[in-house]
């Protein structure tokens, strides 16, 4: 196993374009929109729909989705507590880079631990970070179960599954709660779009 890099031997290189100037060229400021919630709560569907809405409205936007990232960047990680923590650590860094570049980065990850989500906010301290809890109770998520994962977890064919035999720590003070168990998809998306319009500085004067 390779030894970790000594960060004290590294020197940060400053960009020649300040964030405000970058926002002027992009037409809007960067941000991280962090969606968290149980599997099947609706994170990915809402994230992709929000991304489409923003892109078609002229905003530079990209979604980092849990399954997609685990097929590439985080393909070497499992679902132990340590691996889940590392999964979110890596995503936090990538999301912050997207936002620093002036893009709106939406993330759709279970991100079960409060500490990991707090670290994601801290990493993105130089930009706008919004923790959004996609709230659906376990019974609702199990009933949906589009991937059949809850069924496998109940049958013990799948271990360390969040909500069954691995914990999920709900946000204590999220920036927004969307109750997808009691709202239609359209209602949930409209609430998310309104929040983004009201709380994220989307436009600058070019």
Structure characterization notes:
- There is one protein chain.
- The protein is about 40% helix and about 15% strand.
- Strands 2-3-1-4-5 form a five-stranded parallel β-sheet, with helices on both faces.
- The mean pLDDT is about 90.
- The chain is globular and about 55 Å long.
- The N and C termini lie far apart (about 50 Å).
- The protein is α/β, with parallel strands linked by helices.
- The protein is built from eight helices and five strands.
- The chain has a single domain (about 15-200), classed as P-loop containing nucleotide triphosphate hydrolases (Rossmann fold, 3-Layer(aba) Sandwich).
Question: Key terms for this structure?
Answer:
Rossmann fold; five-stranded parallel β-sheet; 8 helices; 41% helix; globular
Beta-strand level of the residues, as a percent range?
Answer: 5-15%
Task: Please work out how many helical segments DSSP would assign.
Answer: 8
**Any idea what the shape is?**
globular
Lateral strand order in the biggest sheet: 2-3-1-4-5
What can be said about the biggest beta sheet?
5 strands, parallel
Number-wise, the strands total 5
What do the pLDDT scores average to?
92
Blueprint of the fold:
Layout (H helix, E strand, L loop, with lengths): L18 H8 L4 E6 L6 H14 L4 E5 H5 L10 H20 L3 E5 L5 H10 L4 E8 L2 H7 L4 H6 L21 E4 L5 H15 L7
Parallel strand pairs: 1-3, 1-4, 2-3, 4-5
Helix pairs in contact: 2-8, 4-5
